[in-house]
Amino acid sequence: MKLSRLVWLLLLMLTLAACQERGRTPQDLSTRVPSVDALATSQVLTQNAPPEGFRESVAFPQIDANLPLLAAWHYEVLLQFDGVFAQTSRRAEAFTRASVWYRQLGNQRRVVLESGGDLVEGEDVTMLEGVRLGEEAFQVRDGLCRQATADETTAADLRAGDLIGGVRVAMPSGVRATINGEAVWRYEFTVDDLLLPQVRLGDNGRITAMSGELWVAPPHNAVVRFYVNLDVENVVLTLFEDTPPVSGQLVLRYDLYDVGTDPNISQPFGC
Description:
The chain is mainly beta and 271 residues long. It has 3 helices and 14 strands. The model is unreliable at 6-45 (pLDDT under 50).
């Protein structure tokens, strides 16, 4: 009897010793952690994950997509180039900037468009204003107002997506912030994800470098900020008609403001 009890005690001690050794080596862990960096990244992504429906990816082929579903807003958009005509040292500069206001009630829209630079015909800064009030549309250029027909496309119908495009797909980066008064999450994308309606690469054109950021407000399903810098070589900027290829830096900027705040949109002065 005493021998059996002694054997039992020895077996118990061996079992306890084996359990204490368990977990001291990585091979003993039930779930391995690939690296400290990977764990930190995983924690950041989890802690700052966007709401459901925005956690896998987002797509905004037109950067101002979904905005007509919102009651009111205002955005600023810019396309700017600074460089040279390809294969030369001759300077080439141009910009197009648009300010757009919208009020869903009454289908009201106002666009102020400004363009200038070497690639713009005449090289002087030009101003164009378009206003749509339901079925009526007005366009003002050089101080002269023209009323458009109901189905005629005017400056008032210009979209940011027509000017600077958007992204096919972007992935969450685990960064949350407040921009332009909105709670937003940052998304990452590559140059291959960009849709650039005003850039034609052609046979020899290429994008040599890119940096960019995309910030999305899930409650509005809308982009609040989209900034991109592109280094390009031998590309054609189709926005500026009949211009030869250029090389340099292309800057795209888009900011959405005043979501839900009614703008004052009225018939332009002189119309």
